[in-house]
Amino acid sequence: MIAFVAGVLGLAVGSFLNVVVYRVPRGESVVSPPSHCPRCDSLVRSRHNVPVAGWILLRGRCADCRVPISVRYPLVELATGLLFAAVALRLDTAAALPAYLWFVGAGVALALIDLDVRRLPNAIVAPSYPVLLALLAGAAAWDHDWSALVRAVIGGAALFGFYLLLVLVYPAGLGWGDVKLSGLVGGVLAFLSWNALLIGAFAAFLLGGIVGIGVILIAGGGRKTALPFGPFMIAGVLLAVFAAAPVARWYGSLLH
């Protein structure tokens, strides 16, 4: 039931994230004016604002001027709903669920914006620090596990310091937006465990390397082809949430 409710919430959040991804890079308000067609400025009717179903009902076109509506809109809504449901199923503690749902929502928006404009806006990253700190503190208090919160703070600071060192040593390799995001990534990973922190942080570079090689071999890119790193950082967190424990057990069995 929690996963179902989280999935429905994710569909609604995904609809809002489409607005965030479009407006935040342009410096526009995400609440005013209401959702409207960027071509004819007609307001989106309430029945057409239903996640996924609204796009299907409209057959992928504006109700007024019939301009095509990108299929990315329902895909973002559906993906966010599925991620919310999956995270709710995976987490052992319901107390920490709000924090991880917030991170997933912010992560989806940041990944898409980074892919679109190669930026990780402060308007999303900066407020996520106090929000996640408060939510994780509440989870630690509910579960009587303050060590998890301490671990999150240390992990966030450690990964932030690591990324800061990387960008100072090799500025062309990472952006300052990646450095600012790294504290959030480290915090939510370390709250789960030290293994999750190590696996999630490493996974970001592994995934980035694999995709980079693919771009060189398939798309004809070069070693200097710029790729946004934010999506790989977000993907690393998701990978660690679902796979850190089995990966740690598998690696431990190799050592023994």
Supply the number of helical segments. Answer: 9
Main β sheet profile: none
Q: Give the number of domains.
A: 2
Radius of gyration: 19 Å
First and last CA, distance: 40 Å
How much of the polypeptide forms β-strand, as a percent range? Answer: under 5%
Number of strands: 0
> Segments where pLDDT lies below 50 for 5+ residues?
none
The ordered H/E elements are HHHHHHHHH
The mean pLDDT is 91
Helix-and-strand structural type: mainly alpha
Which term fits the overall shape? globular
Q: Approximately how much helix is present in the residues?
A: over 70%
What's a quick, concise take on this entry?
This protein is mainly alpha-helical and 256 residues long.
Can you tell me about this structure?
The model has no long low-confidence stretch (mean pLDDT about 90). It is built from 9 helices and no strands. The protein is an all-alpha fold and about 260 residues long. About 70% of the residues lie in helices and about 0% in strands. It folds into 2 domains: about 1-90, no CATH class; about 120-255, no CATH class. The N and C termini lie far apart (about 40 Å). Pfam families: A24_N_bact, Peptidase_A24. InterPro entries: Prepilin_IV_endopep_pep, Prepilin_pept_A24_N, Prepilin_peptidase/N-MTase. It is found in: Cell membrane.
Per-chain topology:
Layout: H1 2-23, H2 53-58, H3 72-90, H4 97-117, H5 122-143, H6 146-169, H7 176-192, H8 194-218, H9 230-255
Helix pairs in contact: 1-3, 1-4, 3-4, 4-5, 4-9, 5-6, 5-7, 6-7, 7-8, 7-9, 8-9
